[in-house]
Amino acid sequence: MCRLLGVVTRVPVPLATALDELAVPFTELSHEHHDGWGIAAWTGQAAGPRIVKDTAPAAGSGLWDETLTGPPADAALLHLRLASPGLPVVPGNTHPFTAGTFAFAHNGFFAPYDALDDLIDADLLAGAAGDTDSERYFLRVLTLLRDTDPVDALARTAADVRARASYASLNCLLLTEQALYAYADEDPASEPSRRRGPDFFRLRYRIDGDRVVVASSGLPQPEGEWSVLPYRQILEIRRSSLRVSVHRVAYDSEVAEA
Q1: Which of 1, 117, 121, 147 pairs with 153 at a CA distance of 20 to 30 A?
Q2: pTM of this structure
Q3: Strands 203-207 and 179-184, how do they pair?
């Protein structure tokens, strides 16, 4: 299992500044979630977000520290990996997975890992960098993004997984040129959910004056300051305005704004 952290700020700042009090405790989670890390951040490039990742643990990594204090960004997702059994710790399996202006990170697993393969466009599947279920999750989202919007693509992909596979969690972050999206979904009857407890796969978000943060459990998240993202709902944080929407999906028919 993995840990996720996303942030959108009103103006570009170094990630260490954007994350503030969360930077150190999130890094500390890599003592358990030690099978690599990755960061996608919009730092002003026209072509897409800046991607930095490594197969070493984040804690003690000079590259991790340099990335947090590096070029200012106004939106980013961060991922700490705890590899599923049998999946090697190699660059091709390290999140985030990227394509053009899209970056994606997943916390959880589904089996079989190839359950979505026949729903993925052939050119995308042929370009897979690794052999994880998480990358297949992203490739199915990319397939749908050719014809629809991110909220619908995430909701439909999650429904595809539920119909075709067993899963523990489908929690994910999707970073686009326009927004950061977070999706929450868990099977409470799965072995990891039962072993880890009811809070492990919760995603929470916090709206401050100049930033919005969304994060996995394991960080300081005082009640009253953080809101739970309910299961099978999608959080959307617009880069241009910090506007926050929570989409209650069956698919994107119902929207509530915070």
Answers
A1: 1
A2: 0.94
A3: unpaired
